[in-house]
Amino acid sequence: MQKLKRDPHVIIGTPGRLLDHIRRKSLDLSNVKTVILDEADQMLANGFREDIEALIDETPKKRQLLLFSATMPDDAKRLARKYMHHPAFLDVAEKATASTVEQRIYETTFPRKFKLLVRHLTEMNPYMAVVFTNTREEAHELAGKLQEETDFIVDEIHGDMSQSQRNQVIREFEKARIQVLVASDIAARGLDVEGITHVFNYGIPRNLEYYIHRIGRTGRAKKEGVSYLFYVPEEKKRVQELLRLTRNTDLCTP
User: Fold this and answer.
1) Closest CA relative to residue 223, chosen from 196, 202, 245, 246
2) 111, 147, 202, 254: most buried by Cβ count inside 10 Å?
3) Chain Cα centroid distance, residue 114
4) Average pLDDT, whole number, for the chain?
């Protein structure tokens, strides 16, 4: 409250907290010149659209709006069209994957996929590994099966957990008290933990660009890492799209 009374030039906040200050009359956005939505796709995916629009509506019509986003889903495009006039789309993302990550692809079937994952985990015995799934339900189910059927210390992180629960899991993972972390794409970006040696894509991500974010959890700080992608025969076209997106022509397919 005291900092806001000093008329700061820049205010950084979550949508809920900013709206709370507006209701308390401790924040006035009527003179704002620039609005920036950082991680726009993530905020929209997490259900903040109404809050975002309420905040934008509190700002003058003559202001600049910028959306920073690792991906540009339809929701983000619709938001841009609603509040921007002839917006410019600038793509500065590097689609190529890191050279420090060895990438491997395995064709399998749905019934065999879990056994294949267990086999690789057992043979590789990773120091720390992240297993990515496409849904929070799948993350919860897979973590439970790994806990039951392997000797690894396993935990999970996904959108059905509170922020404090997710923070606690990440702290334990950072201390290497968790060997295998099963995660939905909520951890594909922003999870910066040293020591992750292996990343497993239990399936092809729905948004192919998330593959780049997923495998970027390993091979960091010039250290080497390994990523695995499991797919079923019906997904061959998606694999080809993924190879084109990542400009990867020598991806290892055992």
Assistant:
1) 196
2) 202
3) 23
4) 87
User: Which residues lie below 8 Å from residue 246, measured CB to CB, with a gap of 6+?
Assistant: 95, 96, 97, 211, 212
Q: How far apart are CA 109 and CA 112, in angstroms?
A: 5
- CB burial of 112-149 (b: ≥16 within 10 Å; e: otherwise) equals ebbebbeebbeeeebebbbbbbbebebbbebbeebbee
- Tokens found for residue 50: 């109404």
The answer to whether 193 touches 174, Cβ cutoff 8 Å, is yes
**pLDDT digits 0-9 by tens, 157-214:** 988 888 889 889 999 999 999 999 999 887 766 677 888 999 999 989 988 888 888 8
Contacts of 105 (CB under 8 A, 6+ apart): 228, 229, 231, 239, 251, 252, 253, 254
